[in-house]
Structures are given as structure tokens and as C-alpha cells.
Amino acid sequence: MRQLSRRDALALGVSGAALTFIGSDERASAAAKEAADSIAQFTGGKTAEKGKVSIELPEIAENGNTVPLSVSVDAPMGADNYVSEVIIVADGNPNPGIATFHFSPLSGKAEASTRIRLAATQNIIAVAKTSKGEFFTNQKLVKVTIGGCGG
Amino acid sequence: MAEKPRLKLPTEAKKGEVIEIKTLLPHVMETGLRKDKDGKPIPRKIINKFVCEFNGKPVFTANLEPAVAANPYMQFRAKVEESGTFKFTWTDDDGTVTTADEKITVS
Amino acid sequence: MSRGGILANCAAVVLVAAGSLFVAGESDVLAQATKREAPLDLKDDASARPWKRYSGWPTRDYSKFNTLGNLASPSAPKEPRKITVPITGDAKKGAELVADRNRGGSCLACHVMGPAGGANLPGNVAPDLSEIGNAGREDEWLFNYIYDARVYNPDTVMPPWGSHEFFDDQEINDMVAFLKTLKSPAVFKTELDDPAKRPPPVEKRDNLDPIENPAMWAVDKAPELWKQKGATGFSCNTCHSDPKTAFKTWAASMPRWEPRLNKALSVEEFVTRHAKATTGESWLMETDENRAMSVYLHFLANGEPIKIDTSSPEAKAAIERGKELSARKVGQLNMACTDCHGKVANNWIRGQWLGEPKGQYDHFPTWRTSLLAIWDIRQRFQWCQVNIRADELPPDAKEYGDLEFYLAAQNEGQKLSVPGIRH
Question: Are strands A60-61 and A135-144 parallel, antiparallel or unpaired?
Fold first, then answer.
């Protein structure tokens, strides 16, 4: 696995240290709006009910390059009623989409983890859809830490 | 360097048990936001889809965006009712497909 | 060493081995039987020359300031400067300057400063300045403290922002004007922003789980390199057919003093010089092959407590030199290892926790999640230097050898766990 130069990695990870302008109001609200649009598209305009969805993220991420994320939904996974999809979006990244998880009764449990990239401190929002057409949601704030040394 | 998928799941389980599966694929997950030394954008190249099937039936699928970190890691669950084979498939933007499989004995 | 020379050596070794008792379980016979010194290339440098800074690192030239190899920094002023008082400065500009990370990290790296920088994860290496406007400090004192704090406190960790040319006089005036407006405690958006309430980080990842730590690829790769035949027709395996047994504790005994080179030799430099002298492979320090071998050799000794040989007079002298080097102020920021990892250890520098020397060595080489790369301790030294705006030395510099020797001595008893995983 080729080693990345620091600049490569910073750009790839789009780490918080480099992108101070993401904090600007205009940019922040554009990203938040895109995230909201993604969610509206997923739910067909329906409002998702807050609850049942748990999001695990560090409170402070050591860097924006690889942040562990776990999502689980406390809901049945039977053949007639199961969590079919969960979308995960971010409200402060250059693009809101992170991943869509598709579950089935064979999943046994609607739970999945991965590692994500964060451009800056922001909210991660998860919306779950069940086979019955219900929607549940939750969100969590992640702070991306700021390095001590500067450039 | 070794670029094969890494898998972690039990080789045996009881009928009806919900097991945990972990996978890791070495991959740069190029976001498309980076620029090279001359300022030209480096094209996006990511694993955009991960599928886990058991005896041919879908168990878990993930559609991935560039916000998923390099060396994509996936952890998820599977309920096993019978012995068989798990098949894992990773699809790259450029069409390349990487697969791996693992047997499990269920009693 | 010529191929003929190596063949002759190995032939001699085989003859001796054949004649010696074959100890049950000892399979590294060829290397062990003769108790010879490991052959080392003594002629060439162990890293690229001329040494070029890694791509993507800051490119500034810091030759005007001390390095671990060279003294160049201007001396500290003896007296505070006389300033025209009262100071006229733009407090609004001052607020921006104190939060500007491009000027050597920003004041917020060390100080909480009221609303500056949105009170976003400030550090607490140094006093909270949120109420300094009420502390009755004279303008001249505030100016000189920023310009060069050494005139008031010779032991200070604070960089000499003026005399080392980070800020000009007007900028310092602006910052003083801002400081004078600070009259109430900082208001933090979340409890995590308050360094007094932020819990120290705890490393919980399983660094030896290949699914958690991509650096474990090196543990897969190294056995391939081990069997790879070099220009001489030999591989590591030729003499070391059972590394798992033979090197069960070796890496925990490194670095060691090497009289043939008159320096402290680390695992990475040993790999370069020993490979060159035996297989002919050129595995310079800071190449992927060298890092993979270093990870592997440390990995084989995981769980073993670090214990280096400090008995010889040369080893003791290396420790003394290492100790001095760790206390030398270097770079434009004028910092020593002992500043961050001593005087102000166990505090937050902006959003990062400063640790003591003990515990900072047993996990090298380590995976770095922020860079998707394996770093050995020498690259870590180099990065610390460049970040405090000091020119780094080549990885095989004897000064780094002394420093690592001292660091290993300070970490005696710590058990190896390599590859590590860190930010």
C-alpha cells in the first residue's frame, strides 16, 4: 500500500484543519440544505420519527480522515416487518451522502459500522426505512479535532 | 503490497444465531476532490458497492460514497439458519469486481 | 562484502556449525553458532543523500534557527524592549491574529482566550487569558511577553513571536489591544471545547487486528521480503530460517551502541546496513521495504519489555547526549522535546494531548490514520522538528540515534506492541 504524502492525505481526508471556510455561514447552510434534500428524497417528503436509531461516533474525532461510525436500529427483523434501508448523510461535507445500508430479514439485526471522512465538525444524520414504509431518524454531532502545531 | 480483502467471521454457529461479520478491502477510495501536482483534478475512483450474500441470497448491501474512508471497513450482522457459503463482492467505479468467500457450518 | 567473501564466511559458519553441538530447538544455527558480529555496511549512508524533505511537508527553510545538529538561532534578548505607551492597535485584527494557525499554530494552541477563534477546542498548556484585560498588566509587559517571553521567564515554553519573526511590531500591538479587551471567562459551545473539562484520550483500538490496523499488511509482506534473494544470491532466510524464534526479543534490546559506526544503531538503520552487507538489498531507511521489515522485527518481539544495554561507557555517553538533545530549543518556535513532553505534558495543545516520554516509543513503527502511512520513530522525530519550524536531519543522523537511545532508556519496561495505530 503506497504511502500518501501529508498533502495527499489532507486533501483526501478533507480534514478540518485545512478547511476553515467550511465554518462560514453560507457554505454551512448550503451543505445542510443538501443533506435535508437527500433525506426528503429518501422519505418521499414524509417526516421521519425521531427514535429507534442509534448512532455511535466519537465525540471528538482525532482527524477527519477516518472516523468510526456505527448505526443500529432497534426494530424487528422478521419476514413481514424489517428495517430495509438506512441512509446516512452529513450536513457539513462537500457532498452530503455517506452510505446507504440495505438490510434483509437475513441480517438478523439492522446494524452496520464503517469508517467515514469528515471535512469539519458537523452532524451525522441517519434515517431508517422499514418494509412497512415507516421512517425513523436520529443525528449526532462530531467535533473534528484541531491540530496543535499548525502549518 | 498485499491487496486482498480481509474477513473476520466465525467458521461455526448455531442455527438461528446472529453472527458478526467484519470485512476490510485495501483501496484508496479516491474522492475526486483532490488535485495533482499540476492542479488537475484526480478522478474519483471508489468502491461504490459492497454486497454480502449467503447461499445466493442477499444479506447486507452497502452503497458507498466518497465520504467512506480509504480501506473501506464494513461490519454487519447475519442470521444463519443452515450451513453454507458467504460471498462478499466489492465493485469499483471502473467496473472491477473483487470477491471473496467463506464457509460456515451451522448445527 | 563481495559474493566470494560472503560465501567464504558462510562456508566457515557451516563448518563451525557442523562441528558444534546442535541444540534442540535452535534452528538459527548459521547465524547463532559462531557468535560473530552481524555484518554491516559501514561505508554508505543509510538514507537518501542529499536528504530531501518528504513531499507534502511544509517547504519553508529554517536554516536561521537551531536544529538538533546545528546551532543557529539568534540569542535571547537580555532586556525587554522599551515601547511607546499607550499601545495603539486594532483589537479586531488582533482577535484574528491570535487565532491564525498559519502563524505557527496560533495562541489558541496553548491558551484559552475568551471568544478568540470561537473558543473552538483551545489548549491549556499555558494560562487562560480570558480575563487578562483585568489583570492590571502594563502595555509594555504585554508587548514584550509576546515579543520574547524569555526576558521575563528564561525557562518559558512560549515561542519568541517577535524576535523569531512570526509577527511584526504592529501585529503585536494589535494582539495587545485585543488582550486588553478580554475581561470575562470564555463561553464554550460544548463542554468538550473546554480543555479543563475535556477527558484525556484513551487508545482503545486493537492495533494487532488486521481489520482495525492496515499496518498489519507489513506483517504479511515482510516474510516475502525475508525470502527474497538479493544481488548476492542470498536472502535473510539463508542465515535466519526461523525468525519467529530467533528474534523473539531482539527488537526490545534496540537501539544498541555500534562501535564500528560510533553511533547508536536502531532497528531501521540496522536493517539497511545488514541487508546491504549480506544479501546486497538496498533497503534504505524510510522506504516501504525498510518500514515493513522494521514492523516485522518489532512484531516478532511484541510483549517483550524494552531493555537496552546501557552498561558501556559509550552507551552512557549516548544517553547523556540524548538527554541534552531532548532539552535543546530548536526551530523558529524555539521548542525542545522536554517542553511538550516534559514541562507541559498531560495538557492539551489545541485538540491534541501531550504525553510524557514513557509510553511514546513502544508502539513504533505505527500506522497513522491521518496519513494512511506507517511511520517509524525517526520520521516522527523529523515531523516534530518540521512542525516547530526546525530543519529536520536525515533519518540516520547520529543525533537521532542518541535521542532514540535516550528515549528507549526512558521506556525501559514498556512492552512492545507493534504496529501501533495512532492519529
Answer: parallel
